[in-house]
Amino acid sequence: MDKSTQYKIFTDPVHGFIHVPKGIVLKLLDHPFVQRLRRIRQLGLANTVFPGAEHSRFSHALGALGLMQRVLLHLRERDTTITHREFESTLIAILLHDIGHGPFSHTLEKSIIRNTHHEELTLLLMEELNRQFEGQLDMAIAIFTGNYPKKFLHQLIASQLDIDRLDYIRRDGMFTGVQEGAIGIDRIIRTMRVHQGNIVIDKKGIYAIENYIVARRLMYMQVYLHKTVLGGDKLLLAILQRVRQLLDQGVDLPFYSPALEFFFKDKKAASQKVTKKALNSFVDLDDNDILINLKYWQHLDHAVLRDLCHRFLNRDFFRTTFLDRKPSQKQLARWKERTAEALDRMGLPHDEDTVGCYLFYDFSQSEAYTYHSDGIWILQHDDIAVEFSKASDNQHILALTKPVIKYYIVHLKEVSLHS
To answer: Are 209 and 247 members of one domain?
Structure first.
């Protein structure tokens, strides 16, 4: 590290001491856009299954910044030219890479600001910060978007082997207690190189990469796509869906969060273009806005909304059933009919809109490794880079490049999917 630079030191349970440079990086860390991430859980509703999964998006952003420092310093040691401004800008890019996440992270993705991915919101917020800091984020934005000439800096932000993934797999594995999330970060970092302008891994690091890819696959199967987490996700989405149904019916539903109320009652908030007002309201949102409204709505005189909120707050989730194949329209119709019958027995409305709040069909898709576009490259002894799946002698690696698609139904426990 530059000895002339002063640092503020944070203690991280995953990576140890993290030195945040004073100046623009520390100012951004202290900015409300970043501090907001303290109030957003990294793993959404995974804490309903793994009690220790209470870590925040902030801790992940800080951890990723610490890892990025280590990688950039290592690459400098390997004779890669990285100027002070490039170093600082890359730290800024990784620190801010998740500021576009909304409440409960991926759970409510595209549901608050409809059809808008968190990366789009991240870029909009980075551009707003750039205005506030009078252009000091120009290079960071270019690196984040892949428009900076040194492509390897962007690859460290977003690729098949980026700093984001290295941190969240290790961090999520630690806080969920899932041992399969343990990956050899030190080994991976020490074997990173820049070859012909791209990040590659020295051949002696190939087994650490194999472990990383397997760990990613197992974390998806055991944590990110856990059936109870999927059930909780759909229940939360059902609540917001019911709120919109009531508002469309002309019900004057009260809100305790002005920011959340804006996105439900302002018709322009759902438009394709994100307005400045929408962006300002979005950065006022965190997990607490959702929870405080659910605690309030569970006491309202709206039976379905009250029931859904009570279920969520008391962890009485829907059941998730994985299917062998995509269900037919006949099967879906039968399950809708059974759901309506169950709602009738419960004394709840059983019209089509209500059934749609208690029955969900969806599928999950995960790929541990994708080599078609931005694969991981292994540097051989003859100074030739080979794509990882061709360099590995592990026959199972190729199987991990295929997407795993699982169809599932989220339904009332009282509803049988059989016969």
So the answer is: no
